[in-house]
Amino acid sequence: MSLEQQIQKESERFQALFDRLSDTQWSDGALPEAQNYLITCKDHVRLTQENITEFNTAVEKEHKRLLDIKGHGVRHTWYKVRGKLEERLDEQEKTWLQEFEKCKEEEERLIVLQEEVRSAETYLHECQTAYDEYINTKQKLDEMLEDFFSGSTPSYPEEDVMEQDLKKQEEQLISLQNQHRLLTHVFQLLHKAHQAVMIARRALDDALNMNTFDLFSKSSFADIAVSSNLARARNASMQAQQFLNEAKRVSPNIPHIG
């Protein structure tokens, strides 16, 4: 059987393997990046959880001080005798509210970070699956080429032309793979920005509802809840803008970002 006949016979199988290899080659570089990104996300979650624990302790401490001043103990009597009870209560309420808002901001940040971890785990699984298929396909293609060229290779008039075409196709493939990785990263950033915007919208809705409630109740708790929800909305909107800025930096030519 001539070389041309052998090529014709194996062309369909070769093309199928080559297409599959091309479709999964991106995972070779994406897998370690996905692994590192997941580790970074989990580190951020751990640090945020530690911050929440620390802020919760501070909130409880300041709230206990506030109750001591409001009660009828020594501190309450001392400030009342000196005529500074209302002033001290106002200062202590502000201190407690500041610590409370810090805690709530970290809790909202934790929600976003946990979603990032889930997204990173999903992406890592996709990369690992594609990489396993890439390695398997590469091995099959190598074995096929090894069997095909194991014997003596006769001269082939169009070999140089085929080699040049193959080189061009390889360059085009690399370019497409780079674009795919770029667009995938941009899509993930935009998805995170969208999630942060949704959190901000929910926080604004909660603030509006509590503000409406406050019109009738005149409750100090409603004021605190409104402030907390507005802080949540501000924090989420800042995170959304950070994701949009990163997407714009990664792909400045994509319109309507920023």
Describe this structure as you would to a colleague.
Residues 159-186 form a coiled coil. Keywords: Coiled coil. The chain has 258 residues and is mostly helical. It folds into two domains: 16-150, Orthogonal Bundle (Helix Hairpins), CATH 1.10.287; 167-258. Helices cover 88% and strands 0% of the residues. It is built from six helices and no strands. The chain has helices at residues 3-24, 27-70, 74-81, 85-148, 159-217, 220-250. The chain is elongated. The protein starts with a helix and ends in an 8-residue tail after the last helix. The relative contact order is 0.10.
Features:
single chain; 258 residues; mainly alpha; Helix Hairpins; 2 domains; 6 helices; elongated; coiled coil
Structural class: mainly alpha
CATH class of the largest domain: Mainly Alpha
Poorly predicted residue ranges: 73-82
Q: Please report the total strand number as a whole number.
A: 0
Order of helices and strands: HHHHHH
Question: If you compute it from the alpha carbons, what radius of gyration comes out, rounded to the nearest whole angstrom?
Answer: 31 Å
Known CATH architecture of the largest domain? Orthogonal Bundle
Helical fraction: over 70%
What's the mean pLDDT score? 77
Query: In percent, how much strand structure appears in the residues?
Result: under 5%
Large-scale geometry: elongated
Terminal Cα separation, in Å? 62 Å
Short recap of the structure:
This protein is mainly alpha-helical and 258 residues long. Helix content is 88%, strand content 0%.
Strands, helices and their partners?
Elements lengths: L2 H22 L2 H44 L3 H8 L3 H64 L10 H59 L2 H31 L8
